[in-house]
Amino acid sequence: MKTSPFDAADYLDSAEAQAEFLTAALETADPKFIRDAVGVVARARGMAKVAKETGLSRESLYKTLGENGNPEFATVMRIVRALGMTLSARPAEASRKVKKRRVA
User: Do 79 and 54 meet the contact criterion of CB atoms below 8 Å apart?
Assistant: First the structure.
């Protein structure tokens, strides 16, 4: 039986799926996982296209999003914008609990 390596980028075929993938990664709060997820979405979109839109070389983009990459936040934001995405925030689950008011 012949097998090939799994690449999540092969399955992220819509902007909605890519946004959900990035959202799930952001929810982990793991910087390495988030970097990897941005790289997966960039591969799904096409690294050459993303590189052109960010002004980075394709090689630099691979290095930045690679296993040993540690991109600056500004670089991550350039890549996210090139992917046609935005980042947003919402309260964490623990923060959503409403505090009871004391009645005088």
Answer: yes
For the domain made up of 8-88, the CATH class stated in words is mainly alpha
Q: What angle do CA 58, 59, 64 make, to 5 degrees?
A: 100
Q: What's this model's pTM, rounded to 2 decimal places? A: 0.82
For residue 13, what is the enclosing H or E element?
none
- Report the Cα 13 to chain-centroid distance in Å: 15
Tens digits of pLDDT across the chain (104 residues): 999 899 999 999 999 999 999 999 999 999 999 999 999 999 999 999 999 999 999 999 999 999 999 999 999 999 999 999 999 888 887 644 555 566 65
Cβ distance 38 to 65 under 8 Å?
A: yes
